[in-house]
Amino acid sequence: MRQRLERLATVVVCVAAWLALQLMAGRGAAVAQEVYATRFSPELVRRPAVRDAVAWLEQNFERQQLPEWIRIAEIPAPPGKEEIRGAYVRQELEREGLRVSVDSIGNVIARRPGKGNGPTVVFAAHLDTVHPVDTDHSVRRDGQILRAPGVSDNTVSVANMLAVVRALNRAKIETRGDLIFIATVQEEAGLRGMIYWIERNAGIADMLIAVDGGGLGSVSYGALGILWTRYGFRGPGSHTNSSAGKPHPARALADAIRSIYEIRIPEGRGGAVYNVGMIGGGKVFNAIPEEAYFTVDLRSVNPVLLDSLNAEIESRVSQAAAAHRVQWTKEVVNREPAGGTEEMLRERRTHPVVQTAVDVYRFLGFDSGARATGSSDAGAAVVRGIPAISVGGARGGDAHTLAEWADGPSALTGTKAFLLMAVALAELE
């Protein structure tokens, strides 16, 4: 009996050991799957030309890049009115000897030719901000913090781009691939400038990096689908004294908004967010308004979820209109396709443009990772099959508000990251 128990114990131990080995092997495979191709190595930073370029950035940040950042931030540039900023950027790029053009929508495009046999890498920084021309754009200094509308999203990236071009030139860096720098327009109005350039320059970009806003250290390789829709209600109107029981656009609007905010977002499908951003209608106090409207900003990386939520919102608008006996209308203001969930974009994650950016940030001290999302010019490339990412230009916050801010010194780190991505991806000669 004792020998039988000992043999049984031996079998148990052997089985446990085998299971442990299988588990370790499985973990090893999982780790192996997380090793992605990259074009960055710390050795690159030790190359004399790259070292000189980084040193130039450090030496000129306080005396040139920071003041220029402030100067650009104080030029109003709402979507469609970026001409003055664009003219400044064109002037500075031409001073650096680059061949510069401005297309018919207003994008400022500069090419820095490579020596050949390398990929063409496009960097995009959008010129526009959401704030109207009559907004006070004065930059206020609060220690190391800069405060002004648009100072983070996206003025910092425009200044970073100009600094990178100068550093490449001062250090006489040569790359195998071409570098194309684009100061895009109307990004805040639906990526219009970027879409315009991509559709008229098919096959040019091997990779595209959008440098955008205050998310320094994050790398996004997806595209957030964005639907902007304006819903309207119309009825005959009535004096308040005789309004009881009459068709009522404002009540239909109120019920529709309440109902929309009761929609539950399903879990495990990439997530979604939505918001009612504008409400309007009516012209007098003492009458039922003949017209009322509201807008919905709906966003998701999952195209199927995006479409289903959009249909649900439309259904609830229709129900509210029927309940209050008014007509309703729909105007699609903007439609940016969704790039897909992490699972849908599994192959996109393996492209070297993603891990190169992650490794650059880790080299610079960030605990960086990559996400299958993004709300920037890169999205226009992602949905058209171009390997693309978006990265930040500095640390910042409160974007799209009058309280927007950016951490000044962090822009130097953002510019170094920009430079290292450029020389790594376009392949240093």
Structure explained in plain terms:
The chain has 429 residues and is α+β, with helices and mostly antiparallel strands. The chain has two domains: 42-223 and 339-425, Aminopeptidase; 225-336, 2-Layer Sandwich (Alpha-Beta Plaits). Helices cover 41% and strands 21% of the residues. The chain has twelve helices and 18 strands. The chain has helices at residues 2-33, 42-45, 48-73, 83-95, 151-170, 192-200, 249-260, 303-323, 346-349, 352-363, 378-382, 410-425; strands at 99-102, 108-112, 121-126, 140-142, 145-147, 179-184, 207-211, 219-220, 225-234, 238-239, 273-281, 287-288, 291-300, 327-336, 370-371, 388-391, 396-397, 405-407. It has an eight-stranded mixed β-sheet with strand order 1-2-6-3-7-16-8-15. Strand 4 and strand 5 form a beta hairpin. Helix 7 (249-260) runs antiparallel to helix 8 (303-323) and helix 10 (352-363) packs across helix 12 (410-425). Residues 1-21 and 27-32 have low confidence and may be disordered.
List the helices and strands and how they pair.
Elements lengths: L1 H32 L8 H4 L2 H26 L9 H13 L3 E4 L5 E5 L8 E6 L13 E3 L2 E3 L3 H20 L8 E6 L7 H9 L6 E5 L7 E2 L4 E10 L3 E2 L9 H12 L12 E9 L5 E2 L2 E10 L2 H21 L3 E10 L9 H4 L2 H12 L6 E2 L6 H5 L5 E4 L4 E2 L7 E3 L2 H16 L4
Parallel strand pairs: 3-6, 3-7, 7-16, 8-15
Antiparallel strand pairs: 1-2, 2-6, 4-5, 5-18, 8-16, 9-13, 9-14, 10-12, 11-13, 17-18
Helix pairs in contact: 3-5, 3-12, 5-12, 7-8, 10-12
